[in-house]
Amino acid sequence: QVKAAGTTIICQLTVTGLGPRWEPRVPWPVDWSGIAQLTEFVGSDAVCWRYDPVVPGVSSLEDFTELARNFYRLQVKLGNINWVFHQRDFVRERIGALYQNLDFDVQMVPFLRQAGEIGRDYGIDFSVCAETRGLAEECGLSSRGCGHYPWFVEVSGRAPTAGHLPGPSRPGCLCVAYYDLGEYGQFERCHGCVYC
Q1: What is the pLDDT of residues 24-37, one digit of tens each?
Q2: Contact 118, 63 (CB under 8 A)
Q3: Contact yes or no for 137/112 (Cβ under 8 A)
Q4: How far, in whole angstroms, is CA 164 from its chain's centroid?
Q5: Whose CA is closest to 175, among 141, 151, 156, 139?
C-alpha cells in the first residue's frame, strides 16, 4: 500500500555471510530466494548491498566474492562497506568471547581496496560511510554515504530541493534525511547480530 501510494522505498540490505555465531537469527545459509523476492519488489536499482561490518580475521575475500556474484545475478549495482573498529573497548565488550577470533594483523586498507575491485568486477559500485572520506580516497572507493541524494532522486524520479531537507543525522555525514524503517538499538526486534 505504501509503495502504491507513491512512497519511494529504498532498501539497504546487510548481507555478510558471517554465519550463526555472529548473526544468530539471520537465515543461514544466506536466503537468496528471499533476497530475490525483496529485490524484485523494490527494484534492483533501489537496493544497496551493505557489507557491514568487515570483521578482521573473520570476513574473507572468498566469501565476499561469492556474495558479490549473487548480488550481480540480482542486478544490484550499489554497495556500502564498513569496517568494525575492533580495538575500541565497547566493541571488545559487545562481542565478548568472539573477540578472540579477531586478527589484529589484518590491514583495513588492502582489504577494502580488494573488496572494491571485486565489486567492480561484478558491476557493484562500493562506497564507505561519508565520515571516512579520507579512507574512501585511500581505498579507491566512493564516500557518497548510504542515504545518497542523487540515488534517491534517480530511484524516485523526484528531486526535492535539497535546501528544504533536514540535515544529516550525524556530524560529517553526507546522507540526506529519510525515514528509516529500522530502529537501531532495538536489538530484541532484530537478528541479534553480535557486532550490533
Answers
A1: 999 999 999 999 99
A2: no
A3: no
A4: 27
A5: 151
